[in-house]
């Protein structure tokens, strides 16, 4: 079986030969050094491991380049100014951005959490005898598993997500208000116009990961929340709009301010093991998520066409995970193998190298102090 260290990473020599467009300075700032770096993470259940292996490849390539330049290694929270995610992408955003984990630490914690949560089903069918949708897994187990991750990272599960301190990395997660069926953002920072809710770290993590039919809704301040997979499984546009609200609310001119914008997917949803009477309902839901995810990607790439041409925008998404369902923890070796194959493809290698070359020019505040 492949190990975590088998993930292919680009070398500095490969990175240094690739051209990267040089955007013009904006308002006296050099975009290549101080422009904003943004990360968007799709939902996908256990397939979120693929997201982490892709990020591991990027971060190892980046830190190899930094080491060669005499600079210290950095974690994602020190490179990205904003990380947004949906469902398990939201969980990963919290772990990397708010809890300030390295990618390796996140992979280890994510594996333990997914094993604990998905090892045992609560109900075989998602429809009860009353034909109402019921949770297939224990929500209390999810709560305890996430709480353990938060505690082991040195934080308190009940600590406010926005704690009054300036975060090293801004993080928000997408969830859906059950009563109004609208996408809501839960943040570890305050927008210029203010924020309505301030959940705990645990509540934010539960709200973004409470997938309908998998877990029961989460209640925060009298409102019930489920994950935002239907409507924002690919949160790239949500992340774009959030970044505009943070940095250019009046002008809306975000693109000239962005150094690098990365969107990472989890492949297509699988559903081969669902065989009960709710099969049609379940499959239609997953097909809708897949369709919306791709439609969002096309819309986002269309708006950021120049960024893609300038190698400032990147979309990474594995093919070949169609037969891996959201909760199939035992398929983690398949996820690892398929992602490794994807990372070894020529097109992906080139894109990862270009991404690394872009990110390595980012000037961290701590670089100036070291």
UniProtKB/TrEMBL annotation:
UniProt-listed Pfam families: Patatin
SUPFAM superfamilies per record: FabD/lysophospholipase-like (SSF52151)
Residue numbers covered by motif GXSXG: 85-89
Domain of life per record: Eukaryota
Location of the motif GXGXXG: 43-48
Active site positions: 87, 227
Listed GO biological process terms: arachidonate metabolic process; glycerolipid metabolic process; lipid catabolic process
Protein's UniProt name: Phospholipase
UniProt organism field: Delitschia confertaspora ATCC 74209
Lineage: Eukaryota, Fungi, Dikarya, Ascomycota, Pezizomycotina
């Amino acid at each position: 079986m492949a190990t975590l260290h088998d993930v292919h990473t680009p070398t500095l020599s490969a990175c240094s030969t690739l051209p990267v467009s040089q955007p013009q300075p904006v308002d006296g700032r050099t975009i290549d050094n101080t422009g904003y770096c943004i990360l968007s993470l799709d939902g996908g259940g256990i397939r979120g491991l693929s997201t982490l292996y892709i990020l591991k490849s990027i971060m190892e390539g980046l830190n190899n380049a930094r080491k060669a330049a005499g600079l210290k290694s950095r974690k994602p929270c020190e490179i990205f100014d904003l990380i947004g995610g949906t469902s398990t992408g939201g969980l990963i955003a919290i772990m990397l951005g708010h809890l300030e984990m390295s990618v390796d630490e996140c992979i280890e914690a994510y594996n333990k959490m997914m094993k604990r949560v998905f090892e045992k089903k609560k109900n075989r069918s998602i429809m009860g005898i009353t034909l109402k949708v019921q949770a297939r897994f224990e929500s209390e187990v999810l709560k305890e598993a996430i709480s353990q991750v938060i505690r082991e990272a040195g934080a308190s599960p009940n600590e406010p997500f926005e704690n009054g301190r300036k975060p090293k990395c801004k993080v928000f997660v997408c969830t859906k208000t059950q009563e109004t069926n609208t996408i809501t953002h839960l943040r570890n920072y305050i927008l210029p116009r203010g924020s309505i809710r301030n959940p705990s770290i645990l509540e934010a993590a539960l709200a973004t990961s409470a997938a309908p039919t998998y877990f029961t809704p989460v209640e925060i301040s009298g409102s019930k929340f489920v994950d935002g997979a239907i409507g924002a499984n690919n949160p790239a546009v949500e992340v774009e709009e959030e970044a505009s609200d943070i940095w250019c609310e009046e002008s809306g001119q975000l693109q000239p301010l962005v150094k690098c914008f990365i969107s990472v997917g989890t492949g297509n949803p699988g559903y081969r093991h669902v065989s009960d009477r709710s099969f049609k309902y379940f499959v239609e839901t997953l097909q809708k998520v897949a369709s919306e995810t791709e439609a969002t990607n096309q819309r986002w790439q269309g708006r950021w066409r120049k960024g893609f041409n300038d190698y400032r925008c990147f979309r990474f998404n594995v093919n070949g995970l169609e037969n891996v369902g959201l909760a199939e923890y035992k398929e983690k070796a398949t996820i690892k193998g398929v992602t490794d194959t994807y990372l070894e493809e020529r097109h992906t290698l080139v894109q990862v190298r270009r991404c690394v070359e872009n990110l390595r020019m980012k000037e961290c505040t701590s670089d100036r102090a070291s």
